[in-house]
């Protein structure tokens, strides 16, 4: 049956739109792109500030490539940064510089980080100052400290490598908890088509919570889809979200988020805990009756529930009939 279905859909229609992941991002303007809350303090980035900050780090990446004389078409840049505006700026910067981003596990042991750095032949790592000690000192890589982006903005604007739609946009690795970490690379073309396909179906929203860890491929959708829509990406430290998710949703006026059914059922639990929520996307697990009954529709209660597939698992399959 699976083969028959694949054959029947052997010539899917390509969705019109940008074919590079960073070209999906809303252009520079004064609309709010990122709203970050940490320990009661908020930081707001407009789309102009997002692009300016990303351009500064992209300059640093391209200047390093020019200095070493090795502008590679398969440049994969690992990233070790907590969920924050610095993370989102850095991912965009890598794409603007013509590379592919590869998020690293914050809590991974040194040998696992070392393996990934060697596996992707990393020449540089984007890292925040507080996480520099987690990078193994015996690996020969350039550390680009993203906290210092203001200095990079003054370094001059080099020519960035121009990627093709078939070049890698990102690489995701498994945790390696059951053996050697395994990486999957996704092209710009595959990533953009996945997001454009969702755009046709998902209702509008204003403020989208970025919940997933950056090493979980769902984060690619959470980060880039709201920024493609021109909405506001809401960023909160992971420990604060896990401590009281309903309070985060209420205080940040979040109307859309993406959670596993386990998280939705255990941390969110009731729709009245997030009265502004009008879109709950679930992913990563089979839906359960608890979540369906609470967030699904019935007479007198509109559904806010959508079941999703991850952007990596939904873009790597190719069947040549």
Automatic annotation (TrEMBL):
**Which biological process annotations from GO are given for this protein?**
amino acid activation for nonribosomal peptide biosynthetic process; secondary metabolite biosynthetic process
The alphabetized UniProt keywords are: Ligase
Q: Which GO terms describe its molecular function?
A: ligase activity; phosphopantetheine binding
Q: Mind telling me which GO cellular component terms the entry cites?
A: cytoplasm
The record's listing under InterPro entries reads:
AMP-binding (IPR020459), AMP-binding_CS (IPR020845), AMP-dep_synth/lig_dom (IPR000873)
The residue ranges of the AMP-dependent synthetase/ligase domain are 40-317
The source's superkingdom equals Eukaryota
Q: What span is annotated as the signal peptide, if there is one?
A: none
Give the matching SUPFAM superfamilies.
Answer: Acetyl-CoA synthetase-like
Question: Which PANTHER family does the entry link to?
Answer: FATTY ACID SYNTHASE (PTHR45527:SF1), NONRIBOSOMAL PEPTIDE SYNTHETASE (PTHR45527)
The protein's name is AMP-dependent synthetase/ligase domain-containing protein
Q: Which organism is it from?
A: Drechmeria coniospora
């Amino acid at each position: 049956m699976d083969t028959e279905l694949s054959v029947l859909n052997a010539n899917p229609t390509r969705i019109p739109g940008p074919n590079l992941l960073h070209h999906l991002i809303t252009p520079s303007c004064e609309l709010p792109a990122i709203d970050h809350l940490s320990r009661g303090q908020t930081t707001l980035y407009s789309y102009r500030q997002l692009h300016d900050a990303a351009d500064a780090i992209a300059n640093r990446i391209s200047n390093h490539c020019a200095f070493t004389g090795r502008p590679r078409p398969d440049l994969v840049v690992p990233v070790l940064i907590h969920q924050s505006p610095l993370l989102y700026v850095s991912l965009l910067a890598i794409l603007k510089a013509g590379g592919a981003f590869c998020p690293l596990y914050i809590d991974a042991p040194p040998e696992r980080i070392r393996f990934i750095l060697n596996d992707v032949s990393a020449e540089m790592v984007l890292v925040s100052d507080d996480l520099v000690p987690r990078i193994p000192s015996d690996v020969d890589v350039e550390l680009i400290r993203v906290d210092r982006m203001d200095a990079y903005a003054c370094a001059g604007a080099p020519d960035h490598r121009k990627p093709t739609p078939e070049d890698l946009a990102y690489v995701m690795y498994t945790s390696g908890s059951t053996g050697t970490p395994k990486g999957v690379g996704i092209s710009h073309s595959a990533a953009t088509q996945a997001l454009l396909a969702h755009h046709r179906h998902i209702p509008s929203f204003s403020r989208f919570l970025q919940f997933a860890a950056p090493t979980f491929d769902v984060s690619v959708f959470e980060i880039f889809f709201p920024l493609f829509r021109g909405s506001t990406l809401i960023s909160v430290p992971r420990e604060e979200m896990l401590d009281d998710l309903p309070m985060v949703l209420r205080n940040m006026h979040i109307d859309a988020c993406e959670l596993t059914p386990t998280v939705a059922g255990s941390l969110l639990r009731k729709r009245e805990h997030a009265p502004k929520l009008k879109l709950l996307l679930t992913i990563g697990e089979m839906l359960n009756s608890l979540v369906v009954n609470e967030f699904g529709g019935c007479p007198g209660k509109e559904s806010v529930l959508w079941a999703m597939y991850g952007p990596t698992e939904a873009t790597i399959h190719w069947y040549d009939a």
